[in-house]
Design goal:
This protein has 438 residues and is mainly alpha-helical. It is 70% helix and 1% strand. It has a two-stranded antiparallel sheet with strand order 1-2. α15 packs parallel to α18.
């Protein structure tokens, strides 16, 4: 794992110098050659997380930690320490807190629990029919409501078009917003997971179609990646080779994908830049960049102390500088306004940025790491009795959402609490039905 992380970090560093900084510097991806202190700090932070990482994907928690490791932790450490600013002086304490928080998550996911030794079952036909009926109704409502504005946004030509499409897709109010998120994070992925687990391709195709519909409405990149990540996870989990079931393969596998996307980008063909934009820029560099951006904005405006979270906001007042802010408590829009001077740009961020440094700097990062660890412990415990592969597969959208959304948002809107409650209350029976209770 240490060797795999070193390779991935090196490839990411190369892609930053060769592609991200020259192409997307205006987006905040500045560069200054790191000195000995930055390189040493980078090595220590990456090494600590690497030796703590679980080496097998045995539970949903190990999947969540793996996604955060690849998409958030490593890019954050590498990018933050090569920005053209006072890196260690400004971000050092928060990065140290991030390492501690991540080690806590890793150790949580590495604990062997009874759920891992229990032979569980797959949900039966009743469960599948309920999901399918819900998916069909939701599909009809979404296409009827958004059919006139559905389109494929081209990431290679105009980043602003992505945020404009996303804004149009979320203008219909709270109910439609929840319908969209549960359609893309629960209903469609569940059909894919059921289809893969039971070998029914038509369910997989329906789930993929749902992800395409949702992307055409809200231009969310995680929706596009969800089917591919679920398929890759399914293939690796079915493998009889322990090396393929391990997490090292995922960390190593991302490096050739980055190199390949950069080689395609260098051909100069317009459409050829799409893999580099989607993978290197949007999926890896932006989650890594938001850590410093959120710290810059909220260390100046005032840490939120989680007053931006519904419920907590009734007890904790908003920062004085933001209390009268029209965009409050939408932290992404506030960052978009302050960093990019664009009030329509929603700079979404992962849990360590949005619920971490924005909430309380280094202390906020530690606190949200502990909160996430508690959720993962409960989630793994609730999975007892369920088929391990199915439980891991349906957690993929939640894990992906955490790389670009706050923890509390992920729990309420992207299946985090839904699957925790369902796993706990219902257990598949050998005959295909359910048994309630524990």
């Amino acid at each position: 794992m240490v060797a795999a992380v070193a390779v991935y970090a090196g490839v990411l560093f190369y892609s930053y110098v060769a592609y991200l900084n020259p192409t997307w510097k205006y987006y905040g991806l500045t560069y200054r050659e790191p000195g000995g202190a930055e390189i040493g700090a980078m090595a220590v932070l990456l090494f600590l997380a690497a030796i703590a990482m679980p080496l097998e994907m045995r539970t949903p928690s190990s999947l969540v930690v793996l996604m955060l490791f690849i998409v958030v932790y490593i890019p954050t450490v590498v990018i933050t320490l090569i920005l053209d600013v006072q890196r260690l002086e400004r971000y050092g304490p928060s990065l140290a807190a991030l390492a501690v928080a991540f080690v806590i998550l890793c150790r949580t996911a590495s604990i062997r629990r009874p759920a891992e030794r229990t032979e569980g079952g797959l949900p039966g036909s009743l469960f599948a029919n309920i999901i399918l009926a819900s998916w069909l109704m939701a599909t009809a409502v979404l296409i009827f409501s958004y059919g006139s504005m559905m389109t494929f946004v081209d990431f290679t030509t105009d980043v602003q078009a992505v945020y404009d499409q996303r804004a149009r897709g979320t203008e219909a109010g709270l109910i439609m917003s929840y319908l969209q998120t549960y359609y893309s994070a629960v209903m469609s992925p569940t059909l894919i997971a059921l289809g893969l687990a039971r070998g029914r391709m038509r369910w997989v195709l329906l789930g993929v179609f749902g992800c395409v519909v949702m992307y055409m409405i809200a231009a969310q990149r995680t929706v596009i990646f969800t089917p591919a990540v679920m398929l890759a996870t399914h293939i690796l989990l079915r493998s009889n080779r322990r090396s393929l079931r391990g997490t090292v393969g995922y960390v190593l596998g991302i490096s050739p994908l980055i190199i390949g996307s950069l080689l395609i980008w260098q051909t100069g063909v317009a459409i050829a830049s799409l893999p580099a934009v989607l993978l290197v820029f949007r999926s890896l560099s932006l989650p890594g960049l938001t850590f410093s951006q959120y710290y810059d904005v909220f260390s100046a405006e005032g840490f939120t102390w989680w007053s931006h979270v519904k419920g907590i906001g009734t007890l904790v007042p908003a920062p004085v500088n933001l209390a009268a802010e029209p965009m409050w408590p939408a932290l992404g829009f506030i960052v978009g306004s302050r960093i990019y001077h664009n009030e329509r740009l929603n700079a979404n961020a992962n849990l360590f940025s949005g619920d971490g440094v924005a909430a309380g700097g280094a202390l906020g990062v530690l606190a949200i790491g502990v909160a996430a660890a508690v959720w993962l412990v409960i989630l793994d415990s609730a999975c007892r009795g369920w088929d391990r592969r199915f439980a891991v597969l349906v957690t993929v959208p939640t894990a992906l959402a955490l790389t670009n959304a706050h923890l509390f948002t992920t729990l309420t809107s992207f299946g985090g609490l839904f699957w925790l409650v369902l796993f706990h209350i219902y257990k598949p029976k050998p005959g295909g039905g359910f048994t309630g209770g524990r």
